[in-house]
Amino acid sequence: MRKYLLAGLLALLLLIPSSTAMDAEDMEKFQEQTNRAQPGAIPAAVAQNVDYYNSLDGYQIVVPGDWVLDDSHRGVMTRLTAPDEKAVIKIYVQSLANVSASDYLHYSNKEILERQNGMNPLAYNRNPVHGIPAYRIMWERPRLSNVPDDLNLYREINLLSYDRVYTLVLKTNSDNYAKHNPVLDSILASFQVQPVVPEYPQVEYPPLEDIQFKGSDMQLTIPKDKMMWGIFHPLFHPNVFYPQAIEEYKQYEDSLGHKFEFIMTYTEFYKPFPRQIVADTYADGRMMMMTWHPVIDEGLSSVIIPNIVNGEYDPYIAEWARQIKDVGEPIFVRFANEMNGDWDPWCAWFYSKDADLFIQAWQRIHRIFEEQGAENAIFVWNPHDRAFPDFKWNSAELYYPGPEYVDWVGLTGYNNGTGFADETWREFNEIYYPVYTEYLRKFPGKPLMITEFSCSELGGDKANWIQQAMNSLSMYPYIRMAVWYDQTDRSRFYRIDSSPTSKEAFRQGLAHPYFLRNAITD
Predict the structure, then answer these.
(1) Is residue 274 in a domain?
(2) pTM of this prediction?
(3) Each residue of 175-195: pLDDT tens digit?
(4) Fewer beta carbons within 10 angstroms: which end of the chain, N or C?
(5) How many CB atoms lie within 10 A of CB 156?
(6) Domain range holding 142?
């Protein structure tokens, strides 16, 4: 192994920070923990060890026989769980094809090292592991007082190779660190690089079926051979909505020759349920999707996913669930979309790179909705098509709360155009074919929805892009709805009517027989 890992790494190590200073309390705590748990063999109480070879990621380790091994995310993460469930070890293999080791390590740990959101770095250094160049970091986040045995202490070891970084993370707490830390050390001692064997999994396509949701007075039906259009328009945002907004919007809609029966909007945790816009929209024969952002300030800077897990927002969530129940009609709930993007404070980058917390928050919200009897809520889980940062620990699938907690899977990918220096023009199929096939494989049986997408004017021919998108959508039969983001975003001119040619292309495209009309009936 070492001949692979040592080659060409001395210069790399100079780019990685050396040890940080700790205050006296942190130093005492860290020394006590490490003195109690020196590297060594797996505890003798473990009856049998198991050799594990991950051919897709290219490594082999020895693991305790009584730890639960989950490699359902092979190629992204391997997970080991202690028999008492008071420790977890995660293993990622980060390719350096598009990022340097120093950038990967610096950016991954930036929020931790800057002590953001209560995270406390206990130590970091570049001490080798059995002669292998390595970068080590240990930190804790605030313990969640209402979560029994909250695993808030992290020890991470990064083994550095010329073309990849092997990241191993122990997640536990101070009460259980001494017991479980030797397991991580023994796994490190057994770690061997092995050949990578690519896998080419087959995608299974379940039979398409009609989709139907019934409420007290309304019914939504999407036949298996049709796709429904939706839209977000600024007039449907709670911040600007007014009594005449829908009538004003209808004039715009009439010019396109299509009634958008599915309306998407946005709201945040610091706001009450937007009853008026919901009531008026449903009264006009439409249904809604509420994009619900877990932030509590207008600057979108608050990080509250751990607080949701801790139960601090249970009364607020329960009130929302009751309001949705009172609607009496199907209403889509898109909580914390694009969670794999660091522009959103619900990305795991802000809370210890630990997507488990996102899953716990989602599951808690879902459970509260069930307890309040909000059976008309339809939960939409929706990452971005590209992860930012594009590191294994931030992969979309690691945020997936499980099929029993998700009704629809959302796809989001934009052609941002070239309004900014780091952006490029992307064609519709370039965006959606990869993520479509990936999601069909990873989230089988779930209907897909393009929850928001659009195309800018800058950098190419928007009218042609729209035509290609309209003609291509029938080639993605498991996408049952598509929602156009009809708003300008700085220099990204996303509006349907950003130019006469773009609007005309959209108007003509909506006439395609594949696109559903009159989906909602009384």
Answers:
(1) no
(2) 0.92
(3) 999 999 999 999 999 999 999
(4) C
(5) 25
(6) 2-193
